[in-house]
Amino acid sequence: MPCCHRCSTELSYAGRPCPQCMSPARFEFKSGKVVTAQGITRASRVRLPGFALSPLVRGKNIRAPRRQRAIRALHMIGRWTWNSLGIALLVHALLFAIAFYFRNHIEDTIKQVQQLAFVPETAAPITAPEKADMELPDMTPDDDSLQIPREVSDDMMLEAGDPDLVAPEPVPFAPEPQVSAPYHGPEMPLKLKAPQAAQGIGGGQPSPSRNMAASGSGLFQNRKGDARAAALKRFGGGPDTENAVNLGLEYLSRQQSSDGSWDPAKGHEVRNRFANDDSGYRGALTALCALPFLAAGNSPDEGRYSSNVKRAVNWLTRNQTADGCLAQRGVMQMYGHMVATLVMCEVYGMTGDEKFRTCAERAVRFLERTQNSAGGWDYQATISSSSRLPQRNDMSISGWAVLALKDARSVGIRVSETAWNGVSDLYDRLSLDTGETYYADREYGDLPSNRLGIGMVGVGLTARTILDSDRFYRRNAAAERMLLEHKPDYARFSDPSWGAQNPNFNTFYGWYYGTLGMFLKNAGQGSAWEQWNAALKEQLLKNQVLAGARKGSWGPDDSWLGPLMGDLYTTSCAVLCLEVYYRYNPMHRPESEITPLVSETRSELPGKPEPNPAKMEKPVEIAGETLDLAKVPDRSKYLRLLAREQGKAAIAPLMDSLKDESPTVRTTALYELGKLKATDAVDAISNMINRSENRDLRLTICDTLGKIGDKSAAQPLVKLLSDQDVTVVGASQRALVKLAGGKDFGTNRHAWADYFGVNP
Question: DSSP H helical segments within 486-591, as ranges?
Answer without folding.
Answer: 508-522, 527-541, 562-565, 567-578, 580-583
